Amino acid sequence: MSAPDVPAELVNPVAMRALAHPLRLKLLRELSLHGPATATQLAQRVGVSVPAAGYHLQQLAKYGFIEDAERPERGRDRPWQARARGLRWSAGTDRSPDFVAASRLLREQFTAEALSALNSYWQSEDEHSPQWREAAFLLGDTAYMDPHDVQEFNEQLRALIARFRDRPAHKQPPGAKPVRLFGFGVPERS
C-alpha cells in the first residue's frame, strides 16, 4: 500500500508536538519521498544510530504518521511507510490554546528544517552541475492580497507542486532529482 496523495490534516495537538522533532521530520520526509524503508536503511540515510531511528519511527507510528509496509518474504526486517503524502494544519485561531501552541511549534520546526536544507544546498552548490545551479532559485516578492487571495494562491501552488510530485517514475525526465520546495505567504507588518 502506498501513501495517498492527499495530505494528512493534523488536528491533534499531542501528535503535532510529537512530530515537531527534527529527526522525526527527516524520517517522515524520507519515507514520503523514497517509499518504504527499514530503521536500518533510514538510520544510514539520515546519519543516526539504528536504535535512535527505531525509537523515533515508533513515535511516528504511535501518532499515526507511518505504518507497517509489506514485509519481504524472507528476513525479519520491518519496513515502514508514510500514511499520507504531505501534511496540513491550521494556525488554530478557533481552537484551544494547546492547539495554537502545538501548531506554532510544528511550524517553527518545519521552517527550521526547510531553511537548513536550503543552507545545506548553498554550502554544497559547487558540487552540482551548472544546469542544476542555474535552475535552483530563491524567490522573494510581495503582492497585495486579502486572506481569501492567500488561500487561493496556496491551493494553486499546491496543485502545481502535485503535478510534478505525483508524476509516475516512468514519466520523469532523465536526470530528475528530488527538489526541495518551500514557500510561505505571511502578511507584513503595517
How far apart lie the N and C ends? Answer: 48 Å
Give the overall average pLDDT. 91
The tally of beta strands, per DSSP, is 4
Strand content: 5-15%
Runs in which pLDDT lies below 50 for 5 or more consecutive residues are none
- Could you describe the largest sheet, including whether it forms a barrel? 2 strands, parallel
Computed Rg: 18 Å
The ordered string of helix (H) and strand (E) elements is EHHHHEEEHHH
Features:
two-stranded parallel sheet; 7 helices; two-stranded antiparallel sheet; 190 residues; 49% helix; 5% strand; mainly alpha
TL;DR?
The protein has 190 residues and is mainly alpha-helical.
Topology (SSEs and partners):
Layout: E1 8-9, H1 13-19, H2 22-34, H3 39-46, H4 50-62, E2 66-68, E3 80-82, E4 87-88, H5 97-123, H6 130-135, H7 147-165
Parallel strand pairs: 1-4
Antiparallel strand pairs: 2-3
Helix pairs in contact: 1-5, 2-4, 3-4
Verbal overview:
The chain is mainly alpha-helical and 190 residues long. It is built from 7 helices and 4 strands. The strands form 2 sheets. A two-stranded parallel sheet has the order 1-4. It has a two-stranded antiparallel sheet with strand order 2-3. Helix 2 crosses helix 4 and helix 3 crosses helix 4 (50-62). The longest helix has 27 residues, at 97-123.
